[in-house]
Amino acid sequence: MPIYNENILMLRNGRWQMMSEPIHFDRSVAGVGPAASFAQAWCNANESEQIGLIPCAEGGSSIDEWNAEETLFCHAISEAKFAMKTSELIAILWHQGESDSHSEKYKDYYRKLDVLVNSFRKELGVTEVPFIVGGLGDYLGKSGFGRSCVEYDLINQELLRYAENNRNCYFVTGERLYSNPDGIHINAESQRRLGIRYFEAYQTKSNVNKPLDNEVEIVNLCCEKEYTIAEKRYITLEQFTLGEGSLEEVMKFFK
Amino acid sequence: MPIYNENILMLRNGRWQMMSEPIHFDRSVAGVGPAASFAQAWCNANESEQIGLIPCAEGGSSIDEWNAEETLFCHAISEAKFAMKTSELIAILWHQGESDSHSEKYKDYYRKLDVLVNSFRKELGVTEVPFIVGGLGDYLGKSGFGRSCVEYDLINQELLRYAENNRNCYFVTGERLYSNPDGIHINAESQRRLGIRYFEAYQTKSNVNKPLDNEVEIVNLCCEKEYTIAEKRYITLEQFTLGEGSLEEVMKFFK
User: What residue stretches are annotated with the Sialate O-acetylesterase domain (chains A, B) (predicted)?
Assistant: First the structure.
């Protein structure tokens, strides 16, 4: 169930474009993440306002790779600064930890996360910006590429503890999320529900410790909106470029 | 015919990843460009060395949008600087002009291109770096989104004149390139041949005024290489992530 909404933008080459998933492009096979349903829920609560997404995720990265001297951090700051030329930063969504779910790495995770959160806020000049952290899925530690993530629950405890102890930081649970066949990546349906949890934390300024009773319904509502002319034009052009439909059909929108 | 080569990298989040097309992500439906076959031809001539691609293209952009004060230029510089932390910039490939192929915009194109080339070289501290410009396709000015590009040939004349008059600048012809059904974008097969022309200009330090007699054969050679273990692992994982093959098959590569 794709989400198209002319009020949801994504950063490309330092500029805003209408969102089309995948938002992330760190890997060729990047799929659906939690940001799109977060953004759609935000739009439902902020009618006729626009929201922009700044993709910075890096598949398979450890928290050490997000150290403030490392490229991932510097690049994320650089991208955010391009975005902030024309917009206000309203939240940072963090979902990471699989690569730190072994070898007692959880023992340093709180401290490293603290440095990271403070570095992001300081570098971007947004000391009060909400920082929302997502728990890792219960399916970890079992199969495929997730097999080695045996300490995911200990990372989750650190994420929750961090949110409980720090101003404008919130935790959302990773309970009842399901994985792709690779055993490590959250599947698209679960990512949609996770995005709704992120928005709940953002909106209520509180931790989401349990899955929401109505998250499936909220997701369905997010994906079922009626398309505007601009959205229909966008979708028709996209489909045409992928080989569906006729040129005449598309050109009708560009008269 | 996809190109996979562990010696061809692309910039993602400021870091190098093995290339997988599409390299560009300015639009969700971005496809094959000239850079991959350029890179493969480069690898054929520079055995066991690595080449990296820095994607900066922006679909539909006019040369004014690449002005040195504009976001596209600033973002491209920012990306290139991340790349140059770990590599040497050996060339800049330019293919643009469709959006300037009407309303006598060609009259200012040479001057604007000159400012742009000098700005890129100055900002990146590479005054001698080859700047290779590609001609626009003969199919323009006729149908679909290309219909309005009636002055594409006048832009081509300016591109060629610019290359003839400026040090370390080379022109490659856009003759005998074919478009997608949209009437504006070069199709994948033609992009492959265009990349070979770009490499010919780079390698011979001269303009490529005619299609190469053997460009189809060179493209076939580029795409027919035997895969290394690393490439097979990459492809198998990519296919699995897209739903093909079994987890067991993939995990064999990660033992």
Answer: 7-203
